[in-house]
Specification:
This protein has no helices and ten strands. It is globular, with a radius of gyration of 18 Å. The protein is an all-beta fold and 152 residues long.
Amino acid sequence: MVIGACTSIDCPVQNKVSTIYYLKKANGSTDTLTVDTLTIMTKTIDKGDTVTLLNSTTGVTYFDVSISYTQPEDVLYFILCDTLGNTYRDTVRVEKENYQHFESVDCQPAYFHHLTNVSTTHHIIDSIVISKSTVNYDDKNEHFHIYFKARY
């Protein structure tokens, strides 16, 4: 006797887990990075190489940045270049709790996150706050509100 089984694979099509940063003005309205360029980098887990997560972006009001799967803290380097050739740099530290998310044995493993703290060195960034602490597949969440200084 042969027993047959079929499986229904319900792996999500949109399975990217990243944090969304919205640029804000001091009054809470949306800000736009108009002429300056923003690059965001991080170091690899073994701290050997640097990886570019966002490269020379301009004209944006928000952007998404990948998040590490299992590290308790991500360290990001925000590098802003203005039109005069000046370069400014801030270090942003994102502390988080990581937890596995299981869909099916047929799907890739995924990690979701709970953001617990964020800090910056305040060279070009006036402040950064957590707006939505849950990081999952939902790419509509505003995880962080970032406020750049009026003059770097």
